[in-house]
Write a structure and sequence with these properties.
four-stranded parallel beta sheet, binds flavin-adenine dinucleotide, 25% strand, FAD/NAD(P)-binding domain, 425 residues, disordered N terminus, 2 domains
């Protein structure tokens, strides 16, 4: 998809009318309706911005986020390759506050009281809401790999939430001697960013081919096959990284011994490596689980796809990676951004006493770098199916790269620049 088409698709996501007053339930000095957004990542930041913009600043929006800035997971694998620094993917909340009038509160939501419609902050105090938006991302279930709690287990990183672990994993790769092995383990789907682990394997191999050419990358995947862009990744591994990347499907990691840097699997023999990158299974962020919203296997939150309102608790809208996805809907930043817009438009309508758009349509484009310069993409379009009450892919829409190329590397950077501006203003 060309950059212009992508921007057009983003802009065209919501269908909006003209609204009068927004009905406020929560006590408000201004008389304005209040929305609290929990989590300033791809879903939450987008929802906060568009709630303000599409209500004509008629809704008071408070965004609660513990981190001072947003460190983007998209492009974070380039930090591991050494072609970007963590500062290049660290983004400010300033424009969201100053330009869009979002009240950004640096805190952590410790509890939600849906009966009284208030959230409690870890730092003390409560915030009332008319509608609550929850986009807490994923919790990485490290407890499912018991050895991670053993001495030295803290040196075995997932780096699946961009930030300090990204920097530490890069340091481990730099310290690894030439001729060593980097092993990445992948949990059974669904997990955050289906192509992300395979992109990471490519970018670590790209670094090795320049700095440590005798080294190896081992991909140990619990899934029966590559979960996204399989043919394209396999082609790159067989050509550009021939002899350097080895892919093994159906390797379900169940434990690790930090003392010997050994991985243990459900079926196969143990494997030792010099740098271990263990991605444990995942579920919706802890606040969603603790609030009784994770209705699918206790892991993911089921929502009404017209509004993203939880099926379990009224007036709470859950977005992004935390939701139980519709078929072929990836857990991606692009998708979380689209959720944020559909939810914002629906909440603006609902608070004005109007029905939400009955036919939401959204798209997804996932770029993956296969080297520091070249990238591939997969794109899809999803529409609401009223009979099935879920999102379905639109046949014939979307697309897939023919092969890795440098032009798409420039598109991938442009995608990131565009979506960061879109989310954060
Ligand atoms: C290595 C990697 C590469 C990726 N590459 C891509 C890519 O190229 N394209 C793409 O589209 N996607 C990509 N993704 C996926 C993308 O990062 C996620 O899908 C996206 O971040 C999901 O958005 P979210 O809002 O659900 O969660 P997040 O963006 O993780 O945001 C969640 C936020 O909630 C906050 N939070 C959690 N609990 C609380 C609480 N109790 N109180 C207050 N705040 C709270 C957290 O601090 C966090 O800031 C990648 C992911 C990884 C790991």
């Amino acid at each position: 998809m060309q950059r212009r088409e992508f921007l057009g698709a983003l802009a065209g996501t919501a269908v909006l009318g003209t609204f009068g007053a927004f009905r406020a339930h929560a006590a408000s000095a201004t008389g304005k309706a209040k929305v609290v957004v929990v989590g300033g990542g791809y879903g939450g930041a987008t929802a906060a911005r568009y709630l303000r913009e599409w209500s004509g600043q008629g809704i008071e929006v408070t965004l609660v986020e513990p981190n001072a800035s947003l460190v983007s997971c998209p492009l974070s694998n380039l930090v591991l390759a050494g072609s970007k620094r963590i500062g290049d993917i660290t983004l400010s909340y300033e424009a969201l506050a100053k330009r869009h009038g979002v009240n950004v509160v640096r805190d952590h939501v410790s509890a939600i009281d849906p009966a009284r419609r208030v959230v409690r902050l870890a730092g003390g105090g409560t915030l009332p809401y008319d509608r609550l938006v929850l986009s807490p991302g994923v919790d990485v279930l490290s407890g499912e790999i018991p050895g991670l709690a053993q001495p030295g287990g803290d040196q075995i990183l997932h780096a699946w939430k961009a930030g300090p672990q990204t920097v530490d994993l890069r340091r481990q790769l730099e310290a690894m001697p030439d001729g060593g092995t980097f092993a990445i383990t992948i949990p059974l789907a669904p997990y955050r960013c289906p192509p992300g682990p395979y992109e990471r394997a490519c970018l670590v191999a790209d670094y090795f081919s320049r700095a440590k050419p005798r080294s190896k990358v081992l991909i140990l995947d619990a899934n029966p096959d590559v979960t996204s862009k399989g043919a394209l990744f396999k082609q790159v591994w067989a050509t550009r990284y021939k002899g350097m990347i080895e892919y093994r499907p159906q390797y379900n990691t169940i434990d690790v011994d930090p003392a010997t840097r050994t991985l243990k699997f459900e079926v196969q023999d143990d494997e030792r490596a010099d740098v271990l990158n263990v991605l444990p299974p995942q579920r919706a962020g802890a606040i969603a689980v603790a609030s009784g919203l994770a209705t699918a296997n206790g892991r993911w939150c089921e929502v009404d796809f017209l509004t993203f309102e939880s099926i379990a608790v009224p007036n709470i809208h859950v977005l992004g990676d935390a939701i139980q996805i519709a078929p072929l809907m990836p857990k991606s930043g692009h998708m979380a951004n689209q959720h944020g817009k559909v939810a914002a438009a629906a909440i603006v309508s609902l608070l004005a006493g109007q029905a939400p758009n009955p036919e939401p349509l959204y798209n997804n484009t996932c770029y993956s770098f296969t080297s520091a310069r070249e990238a591939i993409h997969i794109a899809s379009v999803h529409r609401y199916d009223a009979a099935q009450k879920t999102m379905v892919t639109v046949p014939g829409a979307g697309g897939l790269s023919a092969a890795p190329n440098a032009l798409e590397g420039t598109y991938a950077q442009a995608w990131a620049d565009a979506i960061w501006t879109d989310m954060l203003g």
